[in-house]
Amino acid sequence: MIDVNIMLAMPSLLEPLYIAFGWLTRFLYNFFGNYGLAIIFLTIIVRGALIPLNIKSQKSMLKMQALSGKQAELQRKYGDDKEKYQQALMDMQRENGAGGLSGCLLPLLQLVFIWPIFRIVSGPLIYLSQVSNDNINSMIELGKGMGDKLIGPTVTATNHIGLVKALAENAQFLNECVKRGFIKMEQIVDLHFLGMDLTLSPAYDPRLYVSDPKTYFPLLIFPVLVLATSILSMRLSTIMKPGYKEEKEAKEREKVNEARKGQSGQDDTTAKTMKLMNWMLPAIMLYTTFTMPAAMGLYWVVGSIMGILTQIIVYYMFTKPYEKKKAEVEAKKEAVFKKSGKLATEGASNGEGSGKGKKNKKH
C-alpha cells in the first residue's frame, strides 16, 4: 500500500529536479530562441546522461549470461534450499561484477525524469518566463473574473496552459495583466515549433480537425512518431538482446519436437503474456500523447530516437563482440568434441583389429 505521506512529499522531493530542469530549459530557450529546439536538446542532454548507465546495464547482462553455466551448477548443488542458492548466486555475481542495480535504476530514472519535463511543458510561465506563482495565481483569478471560458476550470499555478492561451489570444486580458504588473511583455515567450503550437494536445475529437485543420492536423505527427519509434525500439530490444538467435532456434526446435508439446504450450503462454506487456507501453504512450501538450510528445519522440541509437551503439560495441566470441568458443568446444570422438572411434577400431590379428596369429 502506498503511503500518503510519501505521495504528499513527492513534490518537495522532486523540487530540485524541477529547478534544475527549468534552468536548463530556460538556458536552451535563450540560446536557440526556439521552444521546440530547447525541448529537443533538453531531451538529448537528459537521455545522453543515461547512456553510461545503459552501457553498464548491458555489460552486466552479458556477464550474467556468461555465468549461466555456473548458475545452473548452483541450482543443482543447493536443490530446494532457495536461501542458500540466492546467497551463493549473489556472491558469484558480486565476485564477477555482474548483477547490481543498474538494470533497475535505468527505467526508474527514465520514469522519474518524466515529472520535471511534464512540469516544464505544463508551466512555461514559471520555468521559461520566470513569472512568480503569486502573479500566476493573480492572473488566473483575473481571468476567471472575466469569464469562465477565458481560462477554464482546470488551470492551476503549475499547469497553466489555458492561461498561456488566454494571454496569446485575448488582447484585453493581456493588457490588463501587464497594466497590473502581473507579467511583462518581454516575459511572453513563443511556444511554437515549425508552425505548431506545442502547448496544444493532439486531438482525438474529429470535430476539431474539421473546425481548425491547420492547427490540429500537423499535431498528429507526434502520436504517429511516438507509436512508430516505441514499436521500433521494442523490436530492436528483442532482436539485439544477448542470446536472441539461440532462443529463436530453440523455439523452432520445440515446434518441431512433438514430444515437448506440453512444455511448448506453457512457453507459448508465457511468450504471449510478455508480448502483451510489451505492447502495453506503446499503447499507454500513444494515449498520453493525446492528453498532454505536444511538447511532451516531442520529448518522447526524441527520447525514443535516443534510445534506439543507444541500443545500436551498445549492440555493436558489446553484444555483437560477445556473441562472436561465444560462437568461437562453442566452435572450438565442438571441434575438440569431434576430435576426441574420432580418436575414440579409431582407438576402438584399432583395438578390434589388433585382437583379430592376435587371434589369426594364434591359429
Task: Outline the structure in words.
The chain has 18 helices and two strands. It is mostly helical. Strand 1 and strand 2 (196-197) form a beta hairpin. Helix 3 (51-66) runs antiparallel to helix 6, helix 4 (68-78) packs antiparallel against helix 5 (82-96) and helix 15 (221-239) packs antiparallel against helix 17 (261-289). Residues 1-9 and 259-267 have low confidence and may be disordered.
The geometry reads as elongated
The portion of residues forming beta strands comes to: under 5%
- Helix-and-strand structural type: mainly alpha
Radius of gyration: 31 Å
Helix count equals 18
> Level of helix content?
over 70%
Count of folded domains: 2
Mean pLDDT: 79
Element order, helices and strands? HHHHHHHHHHHHEEHHHHHH
Uncertain runs: 1-9, 259-267
Number of strands: 2
Q: What is the first-to-last residue Cα distance?
A: 91 Å
Major sheet size, sense and barrel closure: 2 strands, antiparallel
Strand order of the largest sheet: 1-2
